[in-house]
Design goal:
Blueprint: H1 3-10, H2 14-22, H3 41-55, H4 60-69, H5 77-118, H6 133-136
Length: about 160
């Protein structure tokens, strides 16, 4: 099958297929006499695994690790399970930190509301950011530990 058909069957753009070939996740396919790449069922199976791993939040490096540990025709489910459990643990830690940040923000809002009502003039300088909240609350919505190390193109 050609790249367009392969990509459609795997639910990913053809651009992603080319990228996965470029970085070695998919083998360079043989080319037909007129230059078209020719993919087989094993390429489709591998591509579906890559796409599925990305949908579960695995980085391409993690997908590569699973494929390297596994044989050519079978994926090591124990290895995949361990990776997913580790990912789940990282998400739980991020959620715990996000809840702490949320609680700190709620306290800051309540304190700031009280101070605003007690203030002599609403035009007084706003002390909220001057109090160093940004130094106490440092959480990005995309934590570095959750960010894929090599995400590649969409799909």
């Amino acid at each position: 099958m050609r790249i367009g058909e392969l990509a459609q069957k795997a639910g990913t753009p053809a651009k992603s297929v080319r990228y996965y070939v470029d970085i070695g996740l998919l083998a360079e396919p043989p080319r037909e006499a007129w230059g078209y790449r020719r993919y087989g069922p094993e390429d489709l199976s591998r591509l579906r695994f890559i796409v599925g791993g990305k949908q579960l939040g695995l980085s391409l490096d993690e997908v590569r690790d699973v494929l390297d540990v596994s044989g050519p025709n079978a994926v090591n489910c124990g290895h995949v399970l361990a990776m997913l459990e580790a990912r789940c643990d990282r998400i739980e830690e991020w959620m715990r930190r996000a809840q702490e940040v949320h609680a700190e923000l709620e306290r800051t809002i309540e304190t700031s509301r009280r101070r605003l009502h007690e203030s002599a003039s609403p035009e007084d300088a706003c002390p909220i950011l001057e109090q160093g909240l940004h130094a106490r609350v440092q959480l990005t919505l995309v934590s570095p530990s959750l960010r894929a190390t090599r995400s590649g193109p969409a799909g």
